[in-house]
Fold this sequence. Notes:
Number of domains: 2
Low-confidence stretches: none
Oligomer: single chain
Helix content: 25-40%
Bound molecules: manganese (II) ion
CATH architecture of the largest domain: 4-Layer Sandwich
CATH class of the largest domain: Alpha Beta
Amino acid sequence: MKFIHIADVHLGASPDSDKKWGEGRTAEIEESFDNILKICEEQKIDLLLIAGDLYHEPPTESMLQDLDYKFSKLSNTKVVMIAGNHDYIAENSPAARYKFKSKAVILPREKTTNAYLKDLNVCVTGYSYGKPEYTERILENINPGKKGAVNILLGHGGDANHMPFSKSVIAKKGFDYVALGHIHKPAHILKNRMAFAGSLEPLDHTETGRRGYIYGEVTDGVTRIKWIPSNIRSYINMELKVQPEFTNAQIQDVLDGQILKLGYNNIYKIILTGQIGEKVSIEFPKITNRYNIYEIENRTLCDYDENILLRENENNLLGRFIYEMKNRTETDEEIKEKALRYGIEALLTAGDK
Ligand SMILES: [Mn+2]
């Protein structure tokens, strides 16, 4: 039995809507989900598990119709999903009433239920959110639904306000696999038995690194899983090291080289390190316009001449600091140099000499 486990797709979300790449992100999130359905079809996946927050907000009826249509095109794959805290199923909401024409199942709101898939001999047990928060330890009270079947738990949560649970309590229940959602960073928390798929596309700049899905197989009672990256864009924190003699053109060169290597599509936070020359005025908008730059953090030190600074500040804290540092003998040269630079920078920035 081959399965794919995804979670936290957040269809309908529009991250970075104020940035130039933000406009296309909603469509890209959907494209990423469509890619999963394509993989299901091509690899004849038996079961697609969606562990909550497929939608960013509770879906409308027309959204469910579109989803149903997409699922109806899968010739081999059955779908079982739960609602999470974002797409919770309120009483009498479209999701509470909707009857799928395809073979997909959304487990009902606010009760432990299972879907037994006879031809696969798989029993998926889970609990759909009916409201945005549950502090109760609901997942810890769910047991395998059918003896002799492959038992899967579909759960969403893991923090204090979203069905907190202890991994070891759930591990003892005897599920063949526990497919989790809610935590956006993918995490394989119990070997081949329990994992957070993580978000399918990163949903804000704190979600750095790759995102994707879990591919699993259950053969003769043995489960094996593997996380596979599949996201269209990643957030990357990238160091850009400058040297005092660098001009704008040289900085551009270094940046071009690094981004070429890491991917033009990705969204970058640039962390500037090294030293910027005293006479260089860097024109960042000009340099970074051709890329997706979320933010630039300047951690550079200016290229000061300590001797001039020392002469000009003989009678104040800055001068004393430089004097003391330069005359220290016990420290390693590199550390001394760094301490001197950081200290000068701090004192100059504080403006309190
Ligand atoms: Mn969630």
